[in-house]
Amino acid sequence: MIVRDATPADVATILRFVRELAAYEREPDAVVATEAMLHAALFGTSPAAEAVIAEDGVPVGFALFFHNFSTWEGRRGLYLEDLYVTPDARGRGAGKALLAHLAGIAVDRGCARFEWSVLDWNAPAIGFYRAIGAVGMEEWTIQRLSGDALRRLAVKA
């Protein structure tokens, strides 16, 4: 299993993985991203995120991440937006290889932490994360503003 930086040639594969992840997370129709959008976000003049690909002869998974910032730590962190491994490659080390690779990036870049979210019903993923030493932030809840609510608040600013 190898993990490598994604290239522009991987955009179609990344979008396919995003769609497969959305289906797994019970939101198969929620993906509105296009190849052009992902290309701009990952490889445009001002990239918003980065991605890596896990390969075992062929691409079997990916991770998409970006930096956040901790005012308390005074340093940036690494936030994992998406991690996906194809069903036939699960249990063969791709997920751990992707997370280990990102942990290495976080350490190399001086990040204070490496964080991600997981759906509360995804017991296999939660078990895997606990096995590698991740700690759930039970006292924190994610808040989201999007769509009409986001636009309404923006108008009031």
What does this structure look like?
By secondary structure, the chain is an alpha+beta fold. 36% of the residues lie in helices and 23% in strands. It has a five-stranded mixed beta sheet, with helices on both faces. Strand 4, helix 3 and strand 5 form a beta-alpha-beta unit. Helix 1 packs across helix 2. It is globular, with a radius of gyration of 16 Å. It starts with a strand and ends with a helix. The mean pLDDT is 96.
Write the layout of secondary structure elements.
Blueprint: E1 2-5, H1 11-24, H2 35-43, E2 50-55, E3 59-70, E4 75-85, H3 94-108, E5 114-116, H4 123-131, H5 147-156
Parallel strand pairs: 4-5
Antiparallel strand pairs: 1-2, 2-3, 3-4
